[in-house]
Amino acid sequence: MLQGYDDDMIALSDQAIERLVRLHSGDATSSEFHEFDIWRAQSLAHECAARDAEGLLGALGETETAQHANWRDMVDPQSASIAPAIAKKPLAQARSRGFIRRRPVVSVFAGFAAMLMLMIAGLEVGDLWARYHADYVTETGQYQSIELPDGSVAHMNTASAFSIDFSGDVRRVNLMSGEVIFDVAKDADHPFIVAALDGEAMAVGTVYGVRIENDCTKVTVQEGIVEVRNGTGPALRLSAGEQAAYQSGQAPEINADVDIATYGSWQRGKLIFNSQPLGTVIAEAQRHTSERIVVARDGLRDMKVTGVFEIARLDDLLQSIEQTTGAHVLELPLLTVIY
User: Fold this and answer.
1) Residues of the chain whose pLDDT is less than 70?
2) 131-157, pLDDT tens digit by residue?
3) Does the chain have fewer CB atoms within 10 Å around its N or its C terminus?
4) Cα 134 to chain center, whole Å?
């Protein structure tokens, strides 16, 4: 969805998302639904932004239905949409990344415990060494778009690192950590290969992302065709809209559960979740903050969540969890516990 969007179109898309979140909050009036219909009818660009926003929220075709029924009644009882809490909040200037302190700490020992947990859960020495030697690095909460020597553009997500070697017949990228979306310059004589863990993804001219999650690598294609292999089983060819995952000793497999419409939303400063488990939501949020976040109850971890959040305002996510799920959030130095 993001490809081909200029700044004006991105602004329209943001407006559409904010309006739809409001309409799905359960508090929207019939006049607000009418105003949205008027807004989307202003131009073809408005209609395109509205349709994309509906797709992102998993609400395509539901706008009219929502005018005649309570949106919350259509949600699974085991699901929780935390978008309503965001919809009720006025727009504010982006604040520095990190979470607000809502509960004071009364125990020095709790602080030591938090620091110990952070050390245990910290980066491996090998990963730190690899990042130190990488050609391009983003820290936690940092995002960059880098033009490579061949004219390709690498869009780096938070906490990512890679190196390049374009000296031979192949344009080779070694992804060491994190996630990068590559907009590859066409050059049929020099294939573009991204190596991650023990596998690689090869293309000529396309747009695709490669992401390392623990011991798993995911390859997502937005445009063109990409060939994924890791030396186990046959190579897997991916077309636009497809994602594959592989691990050491396991051949690449198609991931049928990928929500391609929301992929890469971090490029616009947003995290968008459509019926995702809270554990998955928190794991994604964790990538964008240096603070450690722990979901202590299995029942909460499996709860489905739908919402749109500004990366620069991730404290809203925790606030919404408290307001809509009945969970409690305990803030300690460098550690947040949801229980």
Assistant:
1) 1-7, 24-27, 56-130
2) 778 999 999 999 999 999 999 999 999
3) C
4) 23
> Residues 178-237: pLDDT tens digits?
999 999 999 999 999 999 999 999 998 899 999 999 899 999 999 999 999 998 889 999
In the block, residue with structure tokens 């603070």: 291
Query: Which residues contact residue 213 at a Cβ distance below 8 angstroms, ignoring those fewer than 6 apart?
Result: none
The two three-digit tokens of residue 281, written as one number: 């939501």
- How buried is residue 8: exposed, middle or buried, by Cβ count under 10 Å (0-12/13-18/19+)? exposed
Between CA 61 and CA 64 the distance in angstroms is 7
Per-residue confidence (pLDDT) for residue 1, from 0 to 100: 43
Q: Which domain holds residue 83?
A: 75-143+269-339
DSSP-assigned beta bridge partners for residue 246: 217
Predicted model pTM:
0.69
DSSP class of residue 335 equals: E
Beta-ladder partners of 203: 192
Residue 2 domain flag: no
Other C-beta atoms closer than 10 Å to the C-beta of 136 total 17
Residues 64 and 211 in one domain: no
Q: b or e along 227-240 (b: 16 or more beta carbons within 10 Å of the residue's beta carbon)?
A: bbbbeeeeebebeb
- Do 181 and 225 lie in a common domain? yes
- The DSSP call for residue 185 is P
Q: Are 216 and 246 in contact (CB under 8 A)?
A: yes
**Are 125 and 208 members of one domain?**
no
CA atoms within 13 A on the CB side of 297: 10
Where do we find the tokens 């290969």? 193
Instruction: Tell whether 306 is covered by a domain.
Output: yes
Residue 1 lies in a domain: no
Domain boundary (235, 261, 287) is at 261
Residues 91 and 154 in one domain: no
